[in-house]
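Allow me, if you will, to draw on your knowledge of protein folds for a short while. I have a record of one protein: its chain in single-letter code and its fold written as discrete structure tokens. I remain grateful for any guidance, and I place the record below:
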Amino acid sequence: MKISNSFGTRFRGKLGKQMIASSWRGIPYIREYVKPRNPRTGLQQENRGRFSEAVAAWQRLPLAEQKAYDRKAVRMTGQNLFIRRFLRGRRNGERRTRRP
């Protein structure tokens, strides 16, 4: 969805260097633009690597297993459930993600 002003002009994305127009769950909003931080610390890079592994593991799952995660997930997607379990498992030293 795009933001419209009183003249009917529609906005989406960065408006100059000061505002962002977007929507969240179908609700349009405008907020101040804040330059994203990218700390690139060792810990941050490690976390990004684990997250990348989780996404790749999800993409390798057979469609039937992905759909099983979708059915099991409550108030989130099956992909989010899988990634949460994957990351928690890695934090606890497990090598496999629990099945849905």
In short: The chain has a mean pLDDT of 84.
